[in-house]
Target: O-antigen ligase domain-containing protein
Amino acid sequence: MLFVISLLAPILARQTVYILLPVGAALLLASALLSSNNYSGSSLKALLASPPVWAALLLAFWAGVSLVWTPFEGPAERFGKAAATMALVAAAASFMPLRTKTSNLNLLPIGVAASAVALVAITLLTAPKYSVEDILDVSPLGRAGLGLALLVWPAMGALAVRGRWVMAGGLGLATFLACFLAGAPNALPALVGGGIVFGFAFGRARAASLALAGLMAAVVLVAPLAALATQVVWPEHSPEFFKHLAFWGRMIASDGPRTLLGHGFGAATWGVLGGYLPPTTPRSLIFQIWFDLGALGAAALALALARASLAVGRARAALAPFLLGGLTASFVICLLGPAAEQLWWLTLAGLDAIAFALVMRGQFRKRRPVLPIGLGARPADDAV
Model:
């Protein structure tokens, strides 16, 4: 349900992703409680003690505190839904078996391949035309494309570490073609960015994870300075490519010290929806973190991204480049927007986190272990 139905159903109906992820995660939790042999209670403790999760909890805590001074009422409900979704994802990831069976691991590339084929077929049959509202909120086909841009990386990693490089390459090519035909906003830049980091990390994952951690943290923390510099260079009419950044620079200049505190969770989104902020307001997650949560929220986001990169870089050598590529794709989507501000995006990101946990716990031997003659009273288990 998580890796096949949840990828296919949103192509036809955008609301299904909100239903399928909680149901699939709840079934996973129920099965973990019924199967005591596959679950270790230390997994949840280890997850909660990991630095990336601590940084994410700090970000969530500060977002909750900022509801005190946010000027709108809607963000409180959005925050509750987002927090509940992330808590469910964390529980599902920690309650998964310590070793993923190959039969379960295969569901991830199967789901990605089926979704790519379905996305191409529906795009060619319907030839959709997007309205302004579809572009802002992202159409069902666009959402499916962004989901593919996220999940294709752990899916390719699951194939490559078992020696199926041709299948992994074919899956990546099919995903790129599907996203190109569907016109998914920011999916292609995310795939390209992930591909660049994957190529750099191949054979040197630890060094790549350090470089990526520093780059992502620097982009988050230095972004307001870049906006101010753009506003200084073009105080009146900036080039089209820099218009959002220049607008942010003018906002920082007018806000002053308020930039360090933030306007409260959801202020940017509800400000645009209510007409208090113009349509030229940046829709990047980095802008929203700074505008809503200020310097503390940005520092927590930078710490979470950096620690996640370092954690992924410690994965097995054959798998780490794919996971670093997937982390880069997620960051590019958040950097460009508009998907990063939406609740459905958090749901897709949660599904991606479960996929990362699934693959990192996989059993990756390429062939059955062979017992010496005369040993073993029963055939060896299939650990392929």
